[in-house]
């Protein structure tokens, strides 16, 4: 289970937005649907997820109906604030969304469609464990309106999967990808690099295996050790080594080179796609700071600068909604300085980059030094945007510090 929720202001029981909040209905709206169930907890994961023995008062077979109660509440809240509009993206994340029957995911999507409407070109993504997807599941998701499937491959090397506590069969990755493709879905695969005991050759083998699947999109994330996880405890006890920063940098460079050679373009530090039309529009909405409503226990939302987050446990979440109350545990309205910092953190990570004009005057002068250090593309800077070089992507935190400190 994830760590503590943020500390914020109390959220009203009816979920109403502040009366002085100005919601712009022309801003894109995304919907995130959190499915918090997993068969096994991976040792590195600190997401808000629960195995069957941890549910204590919540039931998977009732989950879709519970989420639909929050969807109905959200429709009323946004309608009252003048912010009701069709969703441009929908993302089922987790956890393992495909642990639920495909019919439950379809009902949840139908609920979103009925409450908000879906844009004509809406992107609808489902994260999938390779062991839980076959042709019948992919076909049912496609008929429901899903357009994209993200398969959690993580690695093609058995000892690396074991180090991550991943239990899926590597062979089932191809089965899931092919099932999604036959159903007409765009397919993404997710990889993680830097696991204990993973060599550069291991990582190259995983990259080769992923590229052999010819996905439309690929994500490659450096393993981060989160406090409170099994892996953090193992490292603290000296049972496994901590990730090696230099090796992870070599792995990132290997990924970028292999993906570029295969025709994939980077569009965010950890994400590559075959052309701009295959980018994850839902994730880009987060990085660009548009509006989204997160449904489910522990889910976070953002509308017009207001942020809020739901209670964490599925039982508490269900109890709030059964009582006709919002599941929001707290909320906040970041001040201008916080929003400016966040904008630099997020927009500097994407290929379109950060507008130099959005920086305070005393920070714009830092861009020249970043160019000299090989961290920012000179041609893009001349056009008024901070765009990271390959070296800049490896040292993105240093770029953010230079632009904000």
Automatic annotation (TrEMBL):
The keyword Transcription regulation does not apply. It is found in: Cytoplasm. Residues 23-265 form the Radical SAM core domain. Its main location: cytoplasm. InterPro entries: Aldolase_TIM, Coproporphyrinogen-III_oxidase, Elp3/MiaA/NifB-like_rSAM, HemW-like, rSAM, rSAM_sf. SMART domains: Elp3. The keyword Transferase does not apply. Keywords: 4Fe-4S, Chaperone, Cytoplasm, Heme, Iron, Iron-sulfur, Metal-binding, S-adenosyl-L-methionine. It comes from the Bacteria. Belongs to the anaerobic coproporphyrinogen-III oxidase family. HemW subfamily. NCBIfam families: hemN_rel (TIGR00539). This is Heme chaperone HemW.
């Amino acid at each position: 289970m994830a760590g503590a929720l943020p500390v914020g202001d109390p959220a009203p029981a009816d979920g109403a937005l502040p009366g002085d909040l100005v919601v712009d209905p022309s801003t894109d709206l995304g919907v995130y649907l959190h499915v918090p169930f997993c068969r096994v907890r991976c040792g590195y994961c600190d997401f808000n997820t629960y195995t069957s023995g941890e549910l204590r008062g919540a039931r998977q077979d009732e989950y879709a109906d519970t989420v639909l109660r929050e969807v109905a509440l959200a429709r009323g809240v946004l309608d009252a604030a003048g912010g009701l509009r069709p969703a441009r993206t929908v993302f089922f994340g987790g956890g393992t969304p495909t642990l639920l029957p495909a019919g439950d995911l379809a009902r949840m999507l139908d609920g979103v469609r009925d409450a908000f409407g879906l844009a004509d070109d809406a992107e609808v993504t489902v994260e999938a464990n390779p062991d839980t997807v076959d042709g019948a599941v992919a076909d049912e998701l496609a008929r429901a309106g899903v357009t994209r499937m993200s398969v959690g491959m993580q690695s093609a090397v058995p000892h690396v999967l074991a180090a991550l506590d991943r239990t899926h069969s590597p062979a089932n990755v191809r089965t899931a990808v092919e099932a999604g493709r036959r159903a007409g879905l765009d397919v993404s695969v997710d990889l993680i690099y830097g696991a204990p005991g993973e060599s550069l050759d291991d990582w190259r083998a995983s990259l080769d295996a992923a590229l052999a699947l010819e996905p439309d999109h690929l994500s490659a994330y450096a393993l981060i050790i989160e406090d409170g996880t099994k892996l953090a405890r193992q490292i603290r006890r000296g049972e496994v080594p901590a990730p090696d920063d230099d090796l992870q940098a070599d792995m990132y460079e290997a990924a970028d080179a292999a993906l570029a050679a295969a025709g994939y373009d980077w569009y965010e530090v950890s994400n590559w796609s075959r052309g701009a039309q295959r980018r994850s529009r839902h994730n880009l909405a987060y990085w660009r700071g548009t509006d989204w409503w997160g449904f489910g226990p522990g889910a976070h939302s953002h509308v017009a600068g207001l942020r809020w987050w739901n209670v964490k446990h599925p039982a508490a979440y269900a109890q709030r909604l059964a009582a006709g109350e919002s599941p929001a545990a707290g909320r906040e309205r970041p001040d201008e300085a916080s929003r400016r910092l966040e904008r630099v953190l997020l927009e500097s990570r994407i290929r379109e980059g950060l507008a130099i004009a959005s920086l305070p005057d005393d920070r714009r002068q830092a861009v020249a030094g970043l160019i000299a250090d090989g961290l920012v593309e000179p041609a893009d800077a001349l056009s008024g945007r901070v765009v990271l070089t390959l070296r800049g992507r490896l040292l993105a935190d240093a770029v953010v510090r230079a632009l904000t400190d």
